[in-house]
Amino acid sequence: MRSQLFRWLLTTGLLTTSLVATVEVASAQPVPVRDHRRDGDDDRGPRDRDRDRDRDRDRDRDRDRDRDRNWDRDNDGRRDRGPRQAPPPPRVERQAARRGFVWVDGNWDWRNGNWEWQAGHWERARGGKRWRAPRWELQGDVYVRVDGDWIDVDLRPNAAPPPLREERWRPRRGWTWVAGYWDWRNGNWEWQRGRWERERRGKRWRAARWENNNGGWVRVDGTWDDDVPTTAPPELRVENPGFKPGHVWIAGRWEWRNGNYEWTNGRWERARPNSMWTPGRWELRNGRYEWVEGSWAAAPAYPTAPPPPLQVENVQPRRGFVFVRGNWEWRNGQYQWTPGHWERERPQQRWIEGRWELRNGRFEWVAGGWGTMSVPPPAVNAPPPA
Predict the structure, then answer these.
(1) Cα gap 213→219, rounded to integer Å
(2) Comparing C-alpha atoms, which of 242, 309, 254, 306 is closest to residue 279?
(3) How does pLDDT run across 113-170, given as a tens digit for each residue?
(4) Of 85, 88, 279, 316, which sits most exposed with the smallest number of CB within 10 A?
(5) Which residues contact 38 (CB under 8 A, 6 or more apart)?
(6) Would you say the pTM of this structure is higher than 0.85?
(7) How far is it, in rounded angstroms, from Cα 323 to Cα 379?
(8) Chain-wide mean pLDDT for the chain?
(9) Phi/psi at 4 (5° precision)
(10) Which alpha helices (H) appear in the chain, and where do they start and end?
């Protein structure tokens, strides 16, 4: 029993001596204590482990911030002062004109220590404003960006517009060509292409123009004006339509279009029973000429004006036939020409031409026909000489 007690005391003394030596060495030179326990042996709770992990993350973040602050102080803050090299040449961006918008060109921007291209975009136009593009200015030994913005501008140009561009186009019936013009936008002259506008009856398009007003140029917009001529139309053109049974010839006329007289050819229209066509005419009213449209009206039974001169008919003689010359006939309220024709000869008869005669203030037609040829008296023979 005593031997067992002696051995226990001896072991305890040796352990105490080792522990004291270890404490003295640790106090002389600190050594980080590592936890050799496994995860399964960790007696900390979930909240304690999360708190320790957050504390380690905050400590690492503070260490990185201190390192960056020290680097900026040692390098005189060069990273925050901007680039030392000029930006590359701008890229070319081609964009068609867009009415009511302004194209903002792309530009170079300095990001994360490198030049990065920022593509252009459309901005809605602002009245009395002009877009000023961003730019890089050298200040000292670094480049500083000056952002773009809208600045106030004088809307009136101080110089005349460039000469008008030549535009080729062909006439288009029922449409009016509106010529292109120069417009002042964002401090520059921009060409606006011509376009087609549908014609408006009794209207004429007045082109846009620039006028000088007290040293500044002002644009007068184009508009539709009343289109009425003040000069008489030219003489009517001669038309030989011939004859078409059952139809009436509507003679051609001069029309006023876009500030000029333009000729419109005549046409045939089907005749209307007991109706006559009254041709249109230009009349001078209050110093300007106005067109009165033609119309159909009840045809009078007899004309009150003499017929036109007979038309010339060139025919060659024909043995055994007689040529009956053409004549004017009154049809649907107007004179219409009827061509001549051949009639076979009749013995001892001759053809009597028809004629127009004025009777009681109106012209009546006396039809032609065959008449008996008068026999000449017999010749008287002279008495023989003595």
Answers:
(1) 10
(2) 254
(3) 899 999 999 988 887 778 888 999 888 889 999 998 888 766 678 888 999 999 999 9
(4) 316
(5) none
(6) no
(7) 31
(8) 80
(9) -70, -40
(10) 2-28, 46-74
